[in-house]
């Protein structure tokens, strides 16, 4: 038998993404089960009671749908899309049984996260759901996706979602205890790897393929996801989602699994990117806004905007300047034309001026970095 993982402290975190694979939510025959989900849901509930926030990325819709169809149906792409539609409602209903708080279903494709406007819309929606006290449960929109129905889609989706919501850590619950030096199912001498400073090509080369019939992601895709998360300054935690004691340990701040570190902290990675991203324009603000942004860590509201220069679009990086020079940089929630129309207005007047609203912030405080002290 392979050696056990050594307990170690979890990194400090406030917001996390928890990815749960199909193998933890379905039986060998493909029907949906809450056997392992219950312990994971308890971890989520305990974390929320401690003031933390968790977004769940959950596989299992196709497998759950397969349990509702006759064995000969569901073959091919269109069949799998139909199975996803059948299984999605059962998947969300399963998660809702474990929580008193409302569960919110969010279906995404990778295209939603590549398109700048849709990316920001998804981010705004998830932030609002968290502020409402809801538990977002995200899944790939397999009913309409084409090329995304492939190996490891939700592992990588979870990493993208972690960056999307500015998570501190990505938890990946699997049917293995963590990363080993070899495949523990076939090699009795496989050694556990408790801590990885950085995911390398050697790690990827030694990783295996899919681990079960129900799942689509093997260890390689989990390491790929960890690499994506690390680029955003987010650590990844691999653990056994079937091990109740391990999951209870997570709630107590102890990991028995693999910790994959990020070269920089989340904030450092984000600030580095913002400081070095070429600005597409400039927003000049008044003295009150300068004080609010510099000393109070506030978001930029339209009332403090004096002018907007350039032809930037929603989602572009812009400089924020006082009357002399830029002192901050951030991501614009509105285009240059929109900013000019809502400048000096109260937030309640945004929809009156534009006919629509992307929220009260011209630049959200989470999307701001100071250029000078």
UniProtKB/TrEMBL annotation:
Keywords: Amino-acid biosynthesis, ATP-binding, Cytoplasm, Kinase, Nucleotide-binding, Proline biosynthesis, Transferase. It is an enzyme of class 2 (transferase). Its main location: cytoplasm. Pathway: Amino-acid biosynthesis; L-proline biosynthesis; L-glutamate 5-semialdehyde from L-glutamate: step 1/2. The keyword Lipid biosynthesis does not apply. It catalyses: L-glutamate + ATP = L-glutamyl 5-phosphate + ADP. The keyword Coiled coil does not apply. It is found in: Cytoplasm. One of its GO terms (molecular function) is glutamate 5-kinase activity. HAMAP family: ProB. This is Glutamate 5-kinase. The gene is proB.
């Amino acid at each position: 038998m392979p050696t056990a993982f050594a307990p170690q402290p979890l990194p400090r975190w406030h917001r996390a993404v928890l990815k749960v694979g199909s193998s933890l939510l379905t039986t060998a025959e493909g029907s949906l089960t809450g056997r392992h989900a219950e312990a994971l849901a308890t971890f989520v509930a305990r974390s929320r009671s401690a003031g933390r926030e968790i977004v769940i990325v959950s596989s299992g819709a196709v497998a759950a749908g397969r349990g509702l169809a006759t064995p000969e149906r569901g073959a091919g792409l269109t069949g799998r899309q139909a199975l996803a539609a059948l299984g999605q409602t059962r998947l969300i209903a399963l998660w809702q049984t474990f929580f008193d708080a409302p569960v919110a279903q969010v279906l995404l494709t990778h295209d939603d996260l590549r398109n700048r406007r849709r990316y920001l819309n998804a981010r705004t929606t998830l932030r609002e759901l968290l502020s409402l006290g809801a538990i977002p449960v995200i899944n790939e929109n397999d009913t309409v996706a084409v090329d995304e129905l492939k190996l490891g889609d939700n592992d990588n989706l979870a990493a993208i979602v972690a960056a999307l919501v500015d998570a501190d850590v990505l938890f990946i619950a699997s049917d293995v205890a963590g990363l080993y030096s070899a495949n523990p199912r076939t090699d009795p001498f496989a050694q556990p790897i408790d801590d990885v400073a950085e995911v390398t090509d050697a790690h990827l080369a030694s990783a295996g393929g899919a681990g079960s019939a129900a799942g689509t992601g093997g260890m390689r895709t989990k390491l790929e996801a960890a690499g994506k998360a690390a680029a955003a300054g987010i650590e990844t935690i691999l653990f056994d989602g079937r091990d109740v004691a391990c999951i209870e340990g997570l709630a107590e701040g102890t990991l028995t699994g693999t910790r994959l570190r990020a070269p920089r902290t989340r904030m450092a990675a984000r600030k580095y990117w913002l400081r070095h991203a070429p600005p597409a324009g400039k927003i000049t603000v008044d003295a009150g806004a300068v004080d609010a942004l510099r000393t109070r860590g506030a978001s930029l509201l339209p009332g403090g905007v004096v002018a907007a220069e350039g032809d930037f679009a929603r989602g572009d990086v812009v400089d924020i300047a006082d009357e002399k020079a830029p002192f901050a940089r951030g991501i614009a929630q509105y285009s240059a034309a929109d900013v000019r129309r809502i400048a000096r207005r109260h937030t309640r007047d945004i929809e009156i001026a534009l006919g629509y609203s992307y929220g009260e912030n011209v630049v959200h405080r989470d999307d701001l970095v100071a250029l000078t002290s």
